[in-house]
Design a protein that fits this description.
With 497 residues, the protein is an all-alpha fold. The chain folds into two domains: 204 residues, MFS general substrate transporter like domains (Growth Hormone, Chain: A); 221 residues, Growth Hormone, Chain: A (Up-down Bundle), CATH 1.20.1250.20. It contains 19 helices and no strands. The longest helix has 50 residues.
Length: 497
């Protein structure tokens, strides 16, 4: 029923009048280009941090804020911009995001000091949040009869952006000043904005609800505190970050209490009454947690444990998004024909098996075996993403596509943030157990210790994704019960007639 509601909400204008034909190809290109660039900028700076640190004259702990502020501010702003998209039109807010992202990129590239750079990154991340919060809503409106395939492409470009960031950043920094990792965004942003003016059609509701300022005032700081705490926990749990996490949770509880009584709530809490929708969101977070942990751990296996050159290691790692770029759209197209539930379950099961296999690799495992194992793992995540995105968007009630799309992106960011923290804890915990004392980095001359930690981490991650498989099976049971209930209702109505 949720999917039907969503389909009805995107079939026409609020007044029911037929709409002029939308040029879907250019719309998709604009969305994909900005999605790729905005995700890319979350990881492209990593290889440039040492250069930034030297030139800006700050310590290692401080320069990490260039990365952290982007992710944290994006997460804090996603739901707000999603709601604004439902109020004023998703295209309008998307375009505002493109302008902010482009302007922030220019400011980053021209920053004379570290402080200015951090502020510029915050501006850039606000633009990224505004666009990302509404990209899936625009796609859902534009492709009512081919949503899975289009969302598959969005998932593909999301993965490509995350995985290509370090490689592209390394290429740029090796040939040009670090400022160019930001300046390359400007032409893409300008062209996307101008093309968007031509091809994107804004659809604002006839009646605009009031903005829930109190809800926003509670939600934004709660997410900021929670994500800052998760980010800082990468370096260990302290009373400070534990306190931040508790404060964020308290504000979130207060936010939910306020939203339950708000006449025009910031968040459509009613969607959470469907257990299946909640399962889809949790599965999104769990899978991306595992993906983030994998991308953190596996380069250490290739470069430190096996002594493979960084360039070759980058090429090996590129196989992961390569599989995603091929299989993501195919998975989306298949889900349009056979439904989304079974493909997500298949993808999760393959991903679980892939992580378990990676947890059995040895130092002398031939690269010709390692690469197919990694690609098999990527196949699982590739099959999962597009149909799961489609399931999430299918639960969006009329007038809430922006909110639901931003919520899906928020869960992805939550998974990625938790992935680094959880992956670090599992890896170093396994290494510490192996060597007999606490370690928080690679132990020189002891690849065996690293391998013990990696095995622990990947096997634990397989269990975590296995939990998502169980949840997907629960969703299947709930779907079966819902179909049985509908069939019984239809039969009863027929008998009455």
């Amino acid at each position: 029923m949720a999917e039907n509601a969503a389909d009805r909400s995107i079939s026409g204008t609020a007044g029911g009048a037929p709409e002029p034909r939308v040029r879907r190809g250019p719309v998709l290109i604009v969305i994909l280009a900005m999605t790729f660039m905005e995700i890319l900028d979350g990881t492209i700076v990593n290889v440039a941090l040492p250069s930034m640190q030297r030139e800006l004259g700050v310590d290692m702990a401080s320069i990490q804020w260039v990365t952290s502020i982007y992710a944290v501010v994006t997460c804090a702003a996603l739901l707000v911009f999603g709601r604004l998209g439902d109020m004023f039109g998703k295209v309008r807010i998307f375009q505002v995001g493109v302008v902010l992202f482009t302007a922030g990129s220019a400011l980053c590239g021209l920053s004379p000091t570290f402080e200015v750079l951090v502020v510029a990154r915050a501006v850039q991340s606000l633009g990224g949040a505004a666009s990302l919060a509404n990209n899936q809503g625009i796609i859902t409106e534009t492709f009512p009869d081919g949503r899975g395939r289009a969302l598959g492409l969005v998932a593909t470009f999301t993965a490509l952006g995350a995985m290509c960031g370090p490689t592209l950043g390394g290429i740029i920094v090796s040939a040009l000043p670090w400022e160019f990792i930001f300046l390359i965004n400007i032409p893409v942003g300008v062209v996307s904005f101008l093309v968007g003016l031509k091809v994107l059609r804004n659809r604002a509701p006839e009646r605009r609800p009031a903005f829930d300022a109190l809800g926003a005032a509670l939600l934004v700081p709660s997410i900021l505190l929670i994500f800052f705490a998760i980010t800082l926990m990468e370096r260990g749990v302290t009373p400070a970050n534990a306190g931040m996490l508790a404060a964020g949770a308290a504000l979130l509880v207060a936010f939910i209490a306020v939203e339950n009584h708000a006449t025009s709530p910031l968040v459509t809490l009613g969607v959470f009454r469907d257990v299946r929708f909640c399962i889809d969101l949790v599965n999104m977070a769990l899978v991306f947690l595992a993906m983030s942990a994998f991308t953190f751990i596996f380069p250490y296996y290739l470069q430190e444990a096996r002594g493979i050159d960084a360039g070759v290691s980058g090429l090996i790692m590129a196989c992961y998004p390569l599989v995603n770029s091929i299989c993501g759209p195919i998975s989306g197209a298949v889900s349009d024909k056979v439904g989304c539930e079974r493909p997500t379950l298949v993808g999760q099961a393959i991903y679980t098996c892939g992580l378990a296999v990676l947890g059995c690799l040895a130092l002398d495992t031939p690269i010709a075996v390692v690469i197919p194992c990694m690609m098999f793992t990527s196949l699982g995540s590739s099959i999962f993403q597009a149909p799961n995105n489609s399931l999430i968007m299918g639960h969006a009630p009329a007038g809430a596509l922006g909110f639901v799309g931003s919520l899906g992106n928020l869960m992805r960011y939550l998974g990625q943030s938790l992935g680094i923290t959880v992956g670090t804890a599992l890896l170093y915990g396994g290494m510490s157990s192996s060597i007999g004392y606490p370690v928080t980095s690679y132990v020189e001359g002891r690849p065996d210790v690293f391998m013990d930690g990696m095995h622990t981490a990947f096997r634990a991650l397989a269990v975590i994704v296995g939990v998502s498989v169980v949840l997907a099976l629960v969703r299947e049971v709930l779907n079966h019960r819902e179909r049985a209930r509908r069939d019984a209702g239809a039969l009863g109505a027929g008998s009455a007639e």
